[in-house]
Amino acid sequence: MIVYTVGTFDMLHVGHLALLEYCKTLGDVVAVGVASDSVVNSYKPNVPVVPLDQRVEMLKGLRCVDIVRPYHELEYVSACKELNVDIFVIGEDWGDKPHNIAVESYLKSKGKQIIQVVYNPRTSSTKIKKDVIAQFRGRYIEKAFSKIDSNMQLNNTYNNPMPEMCSASN
To answer: With contact defined as beta carbons under 8 Å apart, do 49 and 10 qualify?
Structure first.
């Protein structure tokens, strides 16, 4: 049995691994379609952080994945035909867009299975990106305030060369 799933697989994480290991329990061969940057940009505001060739290489390195193939158009029927897919695994955010309906119709007409999974709540690429941005902003702001504080101390020393002589009690 050939199991096929698709996604961006940006910032590969334990949620991706859980999905792919689950796919391996469903069949003998796990094929993964990886969305190109242009495909991702057609339905998300930003392109992936990790380039397509690196995302493909990381997925190929996983024991639970047998075939990795990028896709450059937002349609899944051709890959399902080429691979002769038995099971198509989709995520909980699958919608009723025309490309989704087309592959569902095709698979149903061929007597193939579609299995919808719930994403791993432990993490997501979006959550990782937000955490990185928050950490960066926190460090950047901390460094900026530290620099401002240092400059203020330096300016106070320069403008007031004898601070011990200028106290509030004078």
So the answer is: yes
